[in-house]
Amino acid sequence: MKVSVDVYTKDVEAALSAFKSALESGAIEVNLRSYEDYDTKEFESLNLSFEADNQSEAITALDAGPFVRNSSDL
User: Fold this and answer.
1) Residue 64: beta bridge partners?
2) pLDDT value at position 37?
3) CA–CA distance, 10 with 23 (Å, rounded to integer)
4) Of the candidates 19, 20, 22, the residue with the CA atom closest to the CA atom of residue 33
5) Number of independent structural domains in the chain
6) Strand (E) or helix (H) holding 53
7) Is the pTM for the entire model greater than 0.70?
8) 74 lies in a domain?
């Protein structure tokens, strides 16, 4: 079964690693977006989203990393 993943982090290296893992594991619709403060233009967070099989290694790896479901939890 395919599931949608949508997580946030401030850790650039972890986000890039998870992005690569998602691509290599066959996920689809893989996106990595950055967000910044509108006024200060300072980096705020990264958003990783993709669709993958619920048994995907890419999803399992997110549990070990600095990822949260809501950006307000960062």
Assistant:
1) none
2) 95
3) 20
4) 19
5) 1
6) strand 43-53
7) yes
8) no
Task: Specify if 52 maps to a domain.
Answer: yes
CA dist 71 and 34 (Å) reads 12
CATH code: domain of residue 43: 3.30.70.260
Domain region containing 22: 2-68
Token duo for residue 70: 């809501």
pLDDT digits (tens, 9 = 90+) for 33-73: 999 999 999 999 999 999 999 999 999 989 888 999 999 99
| Cα–Cα separations (whole angstroms), residue 64 to 7, 35, 39, 41 | 13, 23, 33, 30
Residue-level pLDDT at 64: 86
pLDDT (tens digit, 9 = 90+) per residue, 10-33? Answer: 999 999 999 999 999 999 999 999
**What is the identity of the amino acid at 52?**
A
